[in-house]
Amino acid sequence: KKKKKQKKKKKKKHKQNKRIETASTRLSLSLSLSLMEVATENVDVESGNTSDPEDNNCSDNDFEPSKLGTKEYWEEAYQKELETFTDIGDVGEIWFGEESMSRVLRWMDKANIPQNAAILDIGTGNGAFLVELAKHGYSNLTGIDYSSASVELARNILQAEGLTDVTVQEMDFLNCHGELVGFDVCIDKGTFDAISLNPDNSKEGKKLYLQVLKDALKDKGFFAVTSCNWTKEQLLDRFSEGFDYVQELPTPSFQFGGKTGNSVTALIFKRVY
After folding, report:
1. How far apart are CA 142 and CA 27, in angstroms?
2. CATH code at 49-271
3. Residue 161, SS3 per DSSP
4. Is the dihedral of CA 14, 152, 217, 69 positive or negative?
């Protein structure tokens, strides 16, 4: 009995330590999100928009390069999340929070997106959005991420939820070589942000992203993007070629200096050519 008690105490202490470690990791991720929000350069304080000094549109150097745009950063982050899930069953960080998923789901309901629609989650992370989509009744789901730890974590979480019909693949969206086609809806929650911060190929990455997105979507397919780096005007400019703007989804707003703005932007586009 004494040995059993000691064993239970050790196990309890291990879980407590793991929760502390997890909280530290979450804080790091939250700080990373904050850094993404302030990474914009050339910001006009009055309007809150970033402008290109040459043509008043988005420049190819909108943001300072950051480790948040590197595969190594996310591989390390999701490896820690994977270890935490294995140890104590904690699913990890939900990027932009649960409300970011709920607002897209509400739009899908109002837009009457069929439950058998082919849906792609770009940069799926821990697969939390795939879980919510599946619970919402959507049955043709695919998630991709270039982090192997992310993919393993997402698969483990889906399996724990009993959701075995969801596809999760290790794949770099910018280097998928035409493997992604025929989707009715593509969802991005922070991946375009990360690509924009890549120290190596931000300029080319943003251009390539647009082309791969067009290839992945069916004609008249929808693109739902959530960003903490880009304003509505910037996203409209970035996705003006080949897409029609459908609507902006409501996000939390703030006031500063008599001006009102949003820390997160969520837009819906439709592929037209």
Report:
1. 29
2. 3.40.50.150
3. coil
4. positive
Q: Where are the alpha helices (DSSP H) in 38-168?
A: 71-88, 98-110, 128-135, 148-160
- Residue appearing with tokens 């008043």: 56
User: 264 is written with which tokens?
Assistant: 């997160």
Q: What pLDDT score does 57 carry?
A: 46
**How many CB atoms are closer than 10 A to CB 160?**
12
Give every residue of the chain whose pLDDT is below 70, as ranges.
1-63, 95-96, 254-261
Q: Where are the extended beta strands (E) located within the chain?
A: 43-44, 49-50, 118-122, 140-145, 167-170, 183-189, 217-227, 243-248, 253-256, 259-262, 265-271
Q: Is residue 142 classed as helix, strand or coil in its secondary structure? A: strand
3-state secondary structure of 62: coil
In Å, what is the CA distance from 145 to each residue of 14, 87, 103, 150? 30, 23, 22, 7
* pLDDT given at position 2: 58
For the chain, give every domain's residue range: 49-271
3-state SS class at 244: strand
Per-residue pLDDT, 272:
97
The H-assigned helical ranges of 123-223 are 128-135, 148-160, 191-196, 202-216
